[in-house]
Specification:
This protein is an all-alpha fold and about 110 residues long. The chain is about 75% helix and about 0% strand. The chain has six helices and no strands.
């Protein structure tokens, strides 16, 4: 089983510093990440399953960009709208809306609108 290497952790750390996600993390997340970074540098890759899961979730948060956050917010809105409009039979008189709610550009626009 291949774990998380020092290079992976360092790249994620640098990316998080550049995009500002590192300072948004709580103290315990930062401490875990720094300890893992030290361990991976001096002892080798991290293979512990529970630690790899926690670090993977933290790495995803560090790599997240503003565009990704907007798209996730838009996707959540689109799913809610699909469910709600399906119940209300809106798609019978506006069938094009169903195609819009599956279009990535429209989903991004939904996420950008507050």
């Amino acid at each position: 089983m291949i774990g998380i290497t020092y290079e992976d952790l360092l790249a994620s750390f640098k990316k998080g510093l550049r995009n500002g996600n590192w300072r948004k993390r709580i103290f315990l997340d930062k401490a875990l990440f720094r300890a893992s970074l030290w361990y991976a540098k001096h002892r080798g890759s991290i293979v512990n399953t529970s630690l790899v899961e926690k670090l993977s979730a933290l790495i995803e948060k560090l790599k997240e960009t503003k565009g990704m956050r907007i798209f996730k917010r838009g996707f959540k809105k689109a799913v809610e709208m699909l469910d709600k409009y399906e119940e209300k039979c809106v798609f019978t008189w506006a069938p094009q809306l169903k195609h819009w709610l599956r279009d990535p550009d429209y989903i991004f626009w939904l996420g950008a609108m507050r």
